[in-house]
Amino acid sequence: MSDAWHWEYDPDEMHVTDGIPVDVVAEVERLADQLTELADMGVDIGELGMGPRPGGLRYMDAAGGWFHYLASPRDRIMVVVRIVPPAQNL
Predict the structure, then answer these.
(1) 73 neighbors 46 (Cβ within 8 angstroms)
(2) Which end of the chain, C or N, has fewer beta carbons within 10 A?
(3) Is 9 helix (H, G, I), strand (E, B) or coil?
(4) How far is residue 74's CA from residue 22's CA, in Å, rounded to a whole number?
(5) DSSP letter at 82?
(6) Nearest Cα residue to 71 out of 41, 49, 45
(7) Coil, strand or helix: which one is 83?
(8) Handedness of CA 17, 27, 64, 60 (dihedral sign)
(9) How many Å is the Cα radius of gyration of the chain?
(10) At 24, is the secondary structure helix, strand, or coil?
């Protein structure tokens, strides 16, 4: 088993990305990859983005909208729980 950080959708990809434009999903996934790379380098990704400190549900801008995520250092996982597209895509 790998010690590397990883990310996934919760509860699943279909639930989180359904109806979201492909370019927005691609940007969220790119940012999630970058966040897990930062976590592998020792950066506390539970302190990045916006939201309560320390930890808790965070949100970050992405492609004109934003996404919500939780970081679990114990499990070395970041979960993307919601994507909000730009207003023109609502």
Answers:
(1) yes
(2) N
(3) strand
(4) 31
(5) E
(6) 45
(7) strand
(8) positive
(9) 13
(10) helix
Tokens linked to 10: 């919760």
Q: Which residues pair with 65 in a beta bridge?
A: 62
Rounded CA separation 58/47 (Å): 8
CA distance 17 to 12: 9
- For 36-74, the DSSP string reads HHHHHTT--GGGSSBSSSSSSSEEEEETTEEEEEEEETT
| CA 90/CA 87 separation, integer angstroms | 5
* pLDDT tens-digit readout, 17-70: 999 999 999 999 999 999 999 999 999 999 999 998 777 899 999 999 999 999
